[in-house]
Amino acid sequence: MRYERKYRITSCPLSSIRQAVRNHPASFRKIFPDRQINNVYWDTLGLQTYRDNVMGIAQRQKFRIRWYGNELQKINLPKLEIKKRLNELGDKEIFDMDNFELENITNLSKEVTQLSKVNSNLIPTLLNSYQRSYWGTGNQKFRITIDYNMRFHSLLNEGKFRNYVHQDPAIILELKYDEDFSSVADSIAQFIPFRRTKNSKYVMGIEYSNTWLT
Q: CATH second-level architecture of 2-213?
């Protein structure tokens, strides 16, 4: 399992955030080209996953189908990810999925529910996309990701997806490391010049695109 320390940044440009990571004394460097990440999130009809997160339930799960690249209609090489959270520690299971078209996403509900091993039927609730920048230390013990250009579309009440309407202007920086390295994590985190916050893209996306919840 691993830790993820999150920093929601609203008052600093992307270029300055990248420079702060470059200047970190742990010598973070780019480890992968920036790319677009896309997710379809799944939840119960009563949005139990969303509500567990908002209430801060210590042991919870999150369900999403993820793929990479700019294609948002004909989805290739998707994977179902089941993210498991226990207090501050997280882990995930990953399952290969068949290619599909976004307009037929509801046809996957039975398969997603079965793979997720939950008692309630899961339905698609949110589509989101963002760009991710990847950084790591030379010893590969610590990673930083920077997520920007975050966009959301409700699959609950906005009909078929054509173009994104909802956007979160914040930038999310995450420091990630295995629990084996938690004893030295504070020495890494103290040089990140931003305030640590709680942030869930799923919660933000649901609330941006379903204002009746807020």
A: Alpha-Beta Barrel (3.20)
3-state DSSP call for residue 97? Answer: coil
pLDDT in tens, 98-148: 999 999 999 999 999 999 999 899 999 999 999 999 999 999 999 999 999
Q: Where are the alpha helices (DSSP H) in 73-200?
A: 109-116, 185-189
> Which tokens hold the place of 104?
């037929």
How wide is the angle at C-alpha 12 spanned by C-alphas 31 and 190, nearest 5°?
65
Which residues lie closer than 8 Å to 179 by C-beta, 6 or more apart?
1, 2, 3, 89
Tens of pLDDT, residues 39-64: 999 999 999 999 999 998 889 999 99
Closest Cα to residue 18, out of 204, 110, 144, 180?
Answer: 144
